[in-house]
Amino acid sequence: MRAGYQKIKITPTVGTRMSGFGRRDESRASESIHDDLHARILHLEHDGEEAVIIGFDLLFFSRANAAWLKDSIGGLLDLRPRQILLNTSHTHTGPCVDLWHMNRFHPADTGYMQTLVRSICNGVRTARDQARAVELWAGTGQSRLPVSRRKPDGRGGIDWLPHFEGEVCRNLPVCLLKDTNGQPVCLLYSISCHPSIVHDWSISADYPGPACDALDAHLGVDCSLFLQGAAGDSKPCVIAEGEIDGHPGIKSWRCGDWDDVAEAGRIVADEVVQTIDSGLEPCSPSLSTSLSEVFFDLAPHPGEAILEERTRSENPGRVAISQHMLSQIRMGRDLETSAGILIQGIRLSETVRMVAIEAEIVSELGNRIISAFPSGTTFALGYSNGTGLYLPSDRMLTEGGYEVISHHEYGYASPLAPGIDETLLQATTLMHGNG
């Protein structure tokens, strides 16, 4: 196998519209740069097959913007979409390149996207041209960073509070590619935890930024590549110790600061180093890629009366999107009855695989994907190749909570219908088999 790596700065200019916190993003645009954003590019070639894996310090792409990038890279290197994986870290302090929430009603920042596409294409070309023979080493650690944000309220529902006993995806897969001299070429790793520590108008990569910086310093070369995992319902432990006035002993999420971002980065970097030091296993390369669109059924349409009621919500996004849906119905257009989600598979060896979902996949489903493969190292990834929507588990549908009821923010009138778990796992095992 041959591999080449490039790190490209993708920091937007001050004044670029941000994405990640609805009301913050509506009030004003970015005001400063706290730290630079990057795209980290890995080009792979083995036995005539090629693949490109890119990790971005961004919230997520609209599918159209992801397709723009894939088409441009594919045209440059003669690659198909299945051979190009775009994964976003899901930082909430980056520029808007998506159609989430109110972003669908604002003109796209095509200037930033044009600059991004040019930079990425140049970076991919350089990564390919600098590729050299590598050996693969892989293993899996555990992370203490994620904490569930779904705390049972005692009445069958869910509160948006830290739930320290709740299920999270602690899986920390690591794949280290080293050249024949033992020099690191690329360090792939994944954490399943929202980078939403700071609620600010400063551009920042959040905790994946300092984590990558620390790992690059430890290995002595720029080579780290963060991939966001099954982070849909988890937040970092460093902000899980807030207090609720009048409710002693009940923890809440607090608004973090830059020290919290740095601390979360240190936690992740230390855990990755520990995983490397504990002993990675050598892997025989075997490169293959696949991509398919899987359709998840939506619950029945709520009807015009319910949509009318939603237009009187205190949530401006819910109002605007409900008004848009009503206008579509009154023009004689049908609303969606299913959500199409892209699922991509990349196998780096018989024992190292990636399952990348175009959705905010929750921890429980990430764990189920990992459990479907009894051996080796599995990267269960969300936030890949587009926006999709929250993908909760079937169990969560009866509990409710943000992950279930936020469907309107992604342009759907109804929540997902039961059958999510089976649909996802069938697609995953068909793609990769059970190895």
Strand content: 25-35%
The domain count comes to 1
Quick one: overall form? globular
How many helices? The count is: 11
Radius of gyration, taken over Cα atoms and rounded to an integer in Å: 21 Å
Summarize the structure.
Helix content is 29%, strand content 32%. Strand 5 (49-56), helix 2 and strand 6 (84-88) form a beta-alpha-beta unit.
Task: Please tell me about this protein's structure.
The protein has one domain. Helix content is 29%, strand content 32%. It is built from eleven helices and 24 strands. It has helices spanning 22-27, 63-77, 110-129, 208-219, 258-277, 304-310, 316-330, 363-371, 394-399, 402-405, 420-432, and strands spanning 2-9, 18-19, 32-33, 38-46, 49-56, 84-88, 94-95, 132-142, 146-152, 158-163, 171-179, 184-191, 202-203, 224-228, 234-236, 242-244, 247-252, 281-283, 285-297, 338-349, 352-357, 360-361, 377-381, 390-391. Strands 1, 4, 5, 6, 8, 11, 12, 14 and 18 form a nine-stranded mixed beta sheet that branches. It has a four-stranded mixed beta sheet with strand order 19-20-21-23, covered by helices on one side. A three-stranded antiparallel beta sheet has the order 10-9-15, with no helix packed on it. The longest helix has 20 residues, at 110-129.
